[in-house]
Amino acid sequence: MADIDVKIAQWKLVEVGRVVLIRRGPYTGKLAVIVEIIDHKRVLVDGPSTEENKTVPRHVLPLAHATLTHFVIPKLPRAAGTGPVKKLWEQNEIDGKWAKTSFAQKTESTTRRKNLNDFERFKVLRLKKQARFEVQKTHAKIRAAAPKA
């Protein structure tokens, strides 16, 4: 038989040091790192973010309430305290890397859109209308310049 080399996706592994996005509960939308694996359904997480409003205290989190990210804090010892976790979090610049992801940018723009007042929504509508008009004008010029068949 032929030798088959099967490679698993490494970023989908639940491991100590894996950064997760919390999807449910009081810390929804915040990042935390897996500090210890309790069992096949629960992990101990700690989120020492550099931004004050994004910190997550150490607690047990069901894996059903977490989304694994691509980010891993390497060499994080099992059951490390909040101090070493915070130090490695800042060293690996997790907050900066997360802010650059498309998921974080999309989430931030949707929350900004949700928090607009009536007049700001009106301004967005007018700007979209102006942009659409400019695109249509340019498209009309291109069509007029094209040779007729």
From TrEMBL:
Gene Ontology terms: cellular component: ribosome
Q: Which UniProt keywords apply?
A: Ribonucleoprotein, Ribosomal protein
Keyword Ribonucleoprotein assigned to the entry: answer is yes
The record ties this protein, via Gene3D superfamilies, to:
2.30.30.30, 6.10.250.2270
SUPFAM superfamilies attached to this UniProt entry: Translation proteins SH3-like domain
KOW domain ranges (all copies):
13-40
Establish whether keyword Lipid biosynthesis is in the entry. Answer: no
- Which stretch is the leader sequence? none
Sorted alphabetically, which CDD domains does this protein's record hold?
eL14 (cd23702)
Similarity annotation: Belongs to the eukaryotic ribosomal protein eL14 family.
Name of the protein: Ribosomal protein L14-domain-containing protein
Ranked from the top, the taxonomy reads:
Eukaryota, Fungi, Dikarya, Ascomycota, Pezizomycotina
